[in-house]
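Q:
My hope is that you can spare some time for a protein that puzzles me. I hope you can help me see how the letters and the tokens relate. Thank you; the sequence and its tokens follow:
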Amino acid sequence: MRARVLAAATAAVLVTVVPTVPAHAAPAQAAPGARAARAPLPCPKAPAPKVSRPPQPVPPPAVPQDRVVGGEQLDTPGLVAPAGAPAPPAVTATSWLVADLDTGAVLGACGPHEYGTPASTQKLLLAATMMPKLDPKQVVTVTRGDLKIAPGSSAVGLLVGGRYTVETVWLGLLLNSGNEAANVLARLGGGTGGVTGGVRAMNEEARRLGARQTHAVTPSGLDGKGQFTSAYDLALIARSCFANPLFRRYALTERTQIPAQPALKKGGFQIQNENQLIYRYPGALGGKTGFTELARHSYVGAAQRNGRRLVVTLLGAEARPVRGWQQGAQLLDWGFALPRDASVGRLVEPGELDAAEAAPSGSPAPPTTPAPWHGPAATAARRMAEGDWRVIGPVAGGATIVGVLVAVLVARRRPRPTGRRRA
């Protein structure tokens, strides 16, 4: 009996003195409908000029399970931010998300699971799919079919019959957003299926990553019927890209030389990285810009500061009053200003959703990569190790109380000089 009393007293003290913090480890897929009905918080919006644009495509019907991937707080068309966080900057993007590249914690978002059109940020899905498969030193010959892109759309200037290394084609894709470069890489990675096989592989990779709202129709991000993504999905895809050292190097390349083609009697030329973040934002890691008349401006950017690496994704932005990369930079600043343990959800791990779906009904899902947050006690221990006296003081006081309780109970259990022993 005394042992039970001691255990209860100890637990009560620890619960009292250990502070609670937001959990990075939100459920991969919360139960649809579990969120209490409430009006969505409006996202801070910057005034944007009115522009003429093609009729917006009708998105697929909403799938409740897809809207809660990463946590039930993310199931909102409006703003989701940590309790007590300052208001995020007002941007023109229709949806956006800020996340930690390393822990996977989602720091805040606006309509994270709302459908949007990706424009050239879709080239990141091509990179996530094909970069691990293709030898950067392999030489590929450009075909006439590779140059079948929308007139006036972005191109790096590859020539029919020209011979280029795969690395050069990747640089043309990521620095200059070359749509013909996207066709080359999709064709090469698609094997006997060609570009169609490459797009099929992209959609398979999107599903593996947990990007359930992403469907690619073109490898470049040029608009196609039924082509959609979301700010959350783009963050999953970007996280996969930034895990690849080749991608990180390419994304930070400021300029490169497209080699001459002597057989075609054509000289070489230089291209520059169009992502202004790498030139103007301290700690920038790179990313990808995008634009079509239908999608408007899309953007993905990442940066590091004080040991943290954050990524921002945004869809449906206008270039005025500030450009897409500048809106991304403002949101990165906001994310870096939040506490390290701030979270409203998380980015699921590759293969996690497939494993959960494959598990027999009623059985626990196979183990996945553990989330970095393990509860208030573990968080308090880490903060104590870092010398946080806001935690050390209360815990030390609680430990003193527990010590006194232990001493009292031990003293009472000492055998008395006289009396009978009870069974």
Residues 389-412 form the longest helix (24 residues). The CA atoms of residues 123 and 220 lie 5 Å apart. The chain is about 35% helix and 15% strand.
